Amino acid sequence: MAARPRIRALIGGALAAGVAVIGAVAMIPDANAAASTLGAAAAQSGRYFGTAIAASRLGDSTYATIAGREFNMITAENEMKPDATEPQRGQFNFSSGDQIYNWATQRGMKVRGHTLAWHSQQPSWWGGISGSTLRQAMIDHINGVMAHYKGKLAYWDVVNEAFNEDGSRRQSNLQATGNDWIEVAFRTARNADPSVKLCYNDYNIENWSYGKTQGVYNMIRDFKSRGVPIDCVGLQTHFTGGSSLPSNFQTTLANFASLGVDVALTEVDVTNASTSQYAGLTQACINVPRCVGITVWGVRDSDSWRSSESPLLFDGSGNKKAAYTSVLNALNAASPTTSPTATTSPTGGGTQSPSPTPTTGSGGGGRILGAQSGRCVDVPNASHNNGTRVQLYDCNGQTNQQWTYTSSKQLQVYGNMCLDAAGSGNGAAIQIYSCNGQTNQQWNINSNGTISGVQSGRCLDVWGTGNGQQVQLYDCWGGANQRFSLS
Ligand code: G3I
Predict the structure, then answer these.
(1) Looking at ligand 1, which residue's alpha carbon is closest to its atom 27?
(2) DSSP 146-169
(3) Catalytic annotation on 161?
(4) Interacting residues of 242 by C-beta distance below 8 A, sequence separation 6+
(5) By C-alpha distance, which of 264, 280, 266, 294 is closest to 323?
(6) CB 3.0–4.6 Å: which of 65, 118, 334, 471 could bond 286 by disulfide?
(7) What's the helix, strand, coil split of the chain in %, to 5?
(8) CA-to-CA distance for 433 and 427, rounded, in angstroms?
(9) In what residue span(s) does the GH10 domain sit (predicted)?
(10) Ligand 1 pocket, residue 469 CB under 6 Å
(11) Whose CA is nearest to atom 14 of ligand 1?
């Protein structure tokens, strides 16, 4: 539901400091401005939009630029799998996984862990052991990897693809260690990191009437009834020649959610990127309050594991495809009332919470309200451009006024841009910029109501109270023009 920005004549900044500004014309945000990236559009209803990242591609500037701009959740495509993280028994290697983790979190993105126990991409030494030895190796692996990422990830795919198409358990070396291997994996995971949400992840569980869907559903219902810790189900959503978007997809999501777990679309790709299937799968998620987000399995078609089917949202040159627009439009049309139900921490409790910790607000963020002006910190014209200076404006609850204070002290807007100081001296401009993890994008929320820059030590400050008044840095003195509340 995109609406065009309107132009209003503003008398800006004339109410204070004796600054005479007459008839200044500024672009100011429309009440229903649409977001222009997938992550920001999803954030409007409290969801994320993610992609799988391959560490080896991060040096490709087109790839990194698109990924950094569009997404706010990242899954390592291969780098956190057992063969990558424990190539020899007891010898862990997190170099590629950390490369992706650091790249993502430096940009204010969250990370899904994928995956801890799977019949595929196992370290070769798992092939030489079985029974209780393999069971113990799986437990040790989960403990070793989760210790490394403790408190850092939003979700972990604890177990991946453990079912056959008919709903029975897949015969694998892990299954051969005993039918309880999955619940042992989840119990181990909860103890290893109580702060992260624990997911079961699989493909071909999108059609409610399919045997495999029923098999997974019954396992989760059983786990819930017996107190086996599980927080979420990932539906991979690989729609290929043999499996396209089922008409009952939303029913499937709703039925899983009714068991008391989050649901997510975790590895989406669609043969030839059918616009109707992409729009339909997005809408199904939007319609289910506990559907927390969507991840596509790669950035450009050329990055896909099935690139010959051109299944992603960007073509090989990095251009947005029609499917991109269909997804963006569906996300922008979502009402905040369809946002995911707030969920409590995983049942194991724990003191660490996945970062970032959002401020309040239905769109995933909260307002920064000026004490003197009663107006909100606002990105003019809902701009997403680096370097756009922020201003005061009448509070309207739109996404260009919704800020999320993260555990790394960033004030994020749109899910992937940060409040940024263009300098550190008195009068330095306060603008939005792509999140980069630097200290000029880190802020302390002080008990006296001021917000000070970690780099500069100076405070957010306004010289006036009117619409269009620009925000700057200035020596902290605690006056009303430097006090803001996050709400
Ligand atoms: O890195 C090596 C390279 O050095 C070597 O020359 C080359 C030779 O084939 O292989 C490269 O490794 C490949 C790796 O992807 C990185 O590109 C592996 O062979 C290849 O098997 C591996 O495929 C991955 C596949 O999982 C393995 O099962 C795909 O990238 C990855 O997208 C895919 O992801 C899975 C999810 O984890 C689970 N759900 C299904 C999904 C698609 O299969």
Answers:
(1) 121
(2) HHHTTTT-SEEEEEE--B-TTSSB
(3) yes
(4) none
(5) 280
(6) 334
(7) 30, 25, 45
(8) 18
(9) 32-330
(10) no
(11) 78
Ligand 1 lined by 78 (C-beta under 6 Å): yes
Peptide bond preceding 115 in cis form (omega within 30 of 0):
yes
Residue 136: how many CB atoms within 10 A of its CB?
12
Q: Which of 214, 229, 215, 141 is nearest to 177 (CA)?
A: 141
Q: Annotated catalytic residue: which of 79, 161, 183, 206?
A: 161
State which of 56, 74, 77, 267 you would mutate to test the pocket of ligand 1, scoring each by most atoms of that ligand within 8 A of its C-beta: 77
Residue nearest to atom 16 of ligand 1 (CA): 78
Question: Is residue 100 within 8 Å of residue 55, measured between CB atoms?
Answer: yes
Q: What is the DSSP letter of 357?
A: -
Ligand 1 proximity of 269 Cβ (cutoff 6 Å): no
Report the length, in residues, of the chain: 487
Angle at 120 between CA 263 and CA 304, to 5 degrees: 65
For residue 437, give the 3-state DSSP assignment.
coil
Residue-by-residue pLDDT tens, the chain, 487 positions = 333 332 222 223 322 333 333 333 333 344 457 999 999 999 999 999 999 999 999 999 999 999 999 999 999 999 999 999 999 999 999 999 999 999 999 999 999 999 999 999 999 999 999 999 999 999 999 999 999 999 999 999 999 999 999 999 999 999 999 999 999 999 999 999 999 999 999 999 999 999 999 999 999 999 999 999 999 999 999 998 767 999 999 999 999 999 999 999 999 999 999 999 999 999 999 999 999 999 999 999 999 999 999 999 999 999 999 999 999 999 999 987 567 764 544 543 332 322 333 343 334 578 999 988 888 999 998 888 888 999 999 888 888 899 999 888 899 998 889 999 998 887 889 999 988 888 899 999 988 899 999 988 899 999 888 888 889 998 888 888 899 999 8
